Amino acid sequence: MLTVSRLSIAHVRGLRLHHPAEVRLGRHGVADDRRFLLLTADGHVFDGTKLGTLVQVQSEFSRNNSEHLALTFPDGRVVAADVALAAPMAVTAYGRNFTARPVIGPWADAMSAFAGTDLTLIRVERLDGAMDRHPISIVSDASVQELARHLDPVRPVDARRFRMLLEVAGASPHQEDEWLDRDVSIGEAVVRVDELDARCVITTQDPDTGLRDIPTLRAIKSYRGLRDGRYLDFGVYAGVVEPGVIRVGDSVNPL
């Protein structure tokens, strides 16, 4: 039996993950997953591929009468305020065009000081017809365990380093690859697996410190090879066919 073993989201792309007991999937995935992005002065996304230690910063985001964002830095300093937004702007990132709004408040200065470069914090609008990232990412626990067996020396691998929305228990190694172009029922939702996930340097970084510690990409290449001579696939992406709530422990059923 396949089940959801863990859920992971990040309110700000690149920062420490949260692990809720349940999430609600809409057409854009989880509404507040990577809702905020950091941009460099020349308009490029600044995330763990640029600075792994971003994972040492913890975010808290809430919605009551207003949106409230708090960032806790490794030294214990907390930067928090209600979110105010500037005029919409067009953003192009990772080959996608979408609308976002710069966030007015203390966070950009705080993150710039932490990163050592000028950064702007933006909030993605999540409008119909524009996607800023894949709505859903999935990896099986067995795939992560299989990777561990191909490391030299063999050692445990924490799946958090892959920063996937859904982790699945009960599968065989890389069984999720077999779901490509298929619908999968997960809790109340149905998703359509539509792409293999080509991995990057973030997977080599410790999920708590952000420092490189395991040669995951070399290990993936050693036993999985390269797709089209360049892509190191590990896990899959999906879109939302039927929105709904997904909880840890829910069944996962390829259709």
SSE order and pairing:
Layout: E1 3-7, E2 22-26, E3 29-30, E4 36-40, E5 58-63, E6 67-72, E7 78-82, E8 84-85, E9 89-93, E10 96-104, H1 107-115, E11 119-124, E12 136-140, H2 141-149, E13 166-169, E14 183-186, E15 189-198, H3 216-224, E16 233-242, E17 244-247, E18 252-254
Parallel strand pairs: 12-13
Antiparallel strand pairs: 1-13, 2-3, 2-17, 4-11, 5-6, 6-7, 8-10, 9-10, 10-11, 12-16, 14-15, 14-18, 15-16
Task: Give your account of this protein's structure.
The protein has 255 residues and is mainly β. It has 2 domains: 3-9 and 134-254, PK beta-barrel domain-like (M1 Pyruvate Kinase, Domain 3), CATH 2.40.33; 35-124, no CATH class. The protein is built from 3 helices and 18 strands. The chain has helices at 107-115, 141-149, 216-224, and strands at 3-7, 22-26, 29-30, 36-40, 58-63, 67-72, 78-82, 84-85, 89-93, 96-104, 119-124, 136-140, 166-169, 183-186, 189-198, 233-242, 244-247, 252-254. The strands form 4 sheets. It has a 7-stranded mixed β-sheet with strand order 1-13-12-16-15-14-18. The two termini are 14 Å apart. The mean pLDDT is 97.
